[in-house]
Amino acid sequence: MNPVKFWMLSPPLNAGKRAEWVHEEMELETVTCPIDEGHQPGGRRLTNISLTLAKGPVEDFVWTWYSECLLQEHVLRALQTGGFSGFEVKPVKARFRKPASSRAQNLWELVVTGWGGIARRESGIKVVEHCDGCGHTVYSPLSNSEMLIDEKKWDGSDFFMVWPLPAFPFVSDRVAALIRKARWQGVRIDAPTEFEWGDIGITPGRLSYYMPEARAKELGEPLGIY
Ligand SMILES: [Zn+2]
After folding, report:
1. Going by DSSP bridges, is the β-strand pair 93-96/159-163 parallel, antiparallel, or unpaired?
2. Which of 70, 69, 13 is nearest to 195 (CA)?
3. CA–CA gap between residue 39 and residue 34 (Å, rounded)
4. Residues lying with their CB under 5 A of ligand 1, a single-atom ion
5. Residue 173 Cα, ligand 1 centroid: separation in angstroms?
6. Which residues of 179-192 are buried (b: 16+ CB within 10 A; e: fewer)?
7. Cα–Cα distance between 188 and 111 in angstroms, integer?
8. Positive or negative, the Cα torsion across 192, 198, 202, 207?
């Protein structure tokens, strides 16, 4: 059997540390469907994340309820120093929920720009519903996680996205080793085969919701997911 080469990051099962969006300080694009009123495809976030943190110590990795992955400053520095590829960061406005505190926390939103391609058909993931009006797309659930990643489509980045699973930062062995060695808290590292995927359809939205505009266009346009 081949050794595991790829890993995925996800929030701890205990959701007590999740950060909450401050909705009134954030703006979302509104998308309406010209074909089907029932489609509410969401839209991209137009502003950086503004959030409140759960009480207690802030862990090295912080996740929002919408699955955004945030890094503490020292984690970002270590990743930069280590020369890891496939990500950018965006500033985050973070404060504590209780007691209301003006002390800002230095957090950064992880934006994955590396690419691991579209899930292989053999994984069970395929398009089951697509609307030309608004781009609303539903994929069938992952049923064979051993077949998820097509290694030939991987661009070699340490952080990379596998479509349609943009909520999970996939990482190289090097990243996983660093996280374990540093004993960073607030993040789970699983091989895709170890993860409990569930069996509901996947509705990721568009690639441009997650990646910088130019990168999303370059990757997503030829694949029809931009
Ligand atoms: Zn639609």
Report:
1. unpaired
2. 13
3. 9
4. 33, 35-36, 39, 131, 133-134, 136
5. 39
6. beeeebebbbbbeb
7. 18
8. negative
Pull the structure tokens for residue 153: 């489509």
Q: How many whole angstroms separate alpha carbon 141 and alpha carbon 195?
A: 13
CA of 25 to the centre of ligand 1 (A): 28
CA of 31 to the centre of ligand 1 (A): 9
Q: pTM higher than 0.85, yes or no? A: yes
From the centroid of its chain, how far is CA 105?
A: 21
Which of 126, 127, 105, 16 shows the shortest CA–CA distance to 63? 16
Give alpha helix (H) positions in 6-142.
Answer: 73-81
Q: Which residues pair with 104 in a beta bridge?
A: none
Q: Is the pLDDT of residue 19 over 70?
A: yes
Locus of tokens 């909450």: 20
pLDDT tens-digit map of 121-170: 999 999 999 998 888 899 999 999 999 999 999 999 999 999 999 999 99
pLDDT at res. 166: 96
Q: How far is the CA of 185 from the centre of ligand 1 (A)?
A: 40
